[in-house]
Design brief:
Protein name: Rhodanese domain-containing protein
Pfam family, one: Rhodanese
Number of domains: 2
CATH superfamily of the largest domain: Rhodanese-like domain
Strand content: 15-25%
Distance between the termini: 45 Å
Number of strands: 9
Keywords: Signal
Oligomer: single chain
Number of helices: 5
CATH architecture of the largest domain: 3-Layer(aba) Sandwich
CATH class of the largest domain: Alpha Beta
Shape: globular
CATH topology of the largest domain: Oxidized Rhodanese, domain 1
Radius of gyration: 18 Å
Length: 162
Amino acid sequence: MKIKLLLLCFTLLTIQMSFAQSLAYKTLLKGVYDNDFPTVKLNQKEILENAVLLDTREKEEFEVSHLKNAKWVGYNTFSLESVQDLSKDQPIVVYCSIGARSQDIGKKLKDAGFEQVYNLYGGIFHWVNEDMPVFDQESQTKRVHAYSRSWGIWLNKGVKVY
């Protein structure tokens, strides 16, 4: 009886912690994202499957892992020249660790005339936390650049690389 009660308490605590972290992450994202800039969520497969994926993290982060077929455009070194081959009416999904840097790049793309630009909700951290695959230069990997130890708390799955 005591073991069953202990297991029940442990299960409830785990569920509560999982919910609390997800609530905390959602609150963080709400504070980072502008209400008027569109996001795309994982269940919006039609957009994700037809979009060009642009990784707006730094090169070191991209080289650890990225979404399949993503094109690296960077953040500090971003230039519109890196996207000059893209059609302005083609759907584009930008992403970074959580979505702050990618939103900035997304705004630059919109200002340059790109019509369908979306920010990946929750960034690569949310992507990996939802068991979606990431790739290095050769194959699928579990490694994810966590940006920093303080930002790495939001990455619950995968192997953190700093």
